[in-house]
Amino acid sequence: MQVTKPKTKKVSLTKQRRAETWQRLTKEQQSVIKKHIRYQQTSLFMNHELIGHGRHWSLVAFHENTNFDSPSSPQLYCDCGRRLKYQYVLTNNLGEEIKLGITHFADHIGIPEAVARQLQAEIHQLNFGLDELLQRIRRHAGLNQEMRNWFIIHQNEFDDLPPNTVDFITQNLPPEREIQTDIVRAYKKATYVKKEHVQRKKSKLNKKAWQEIFREI
Question: Organism's domain of life (predicted)?
Answer without folding.
Answer: Bacteria
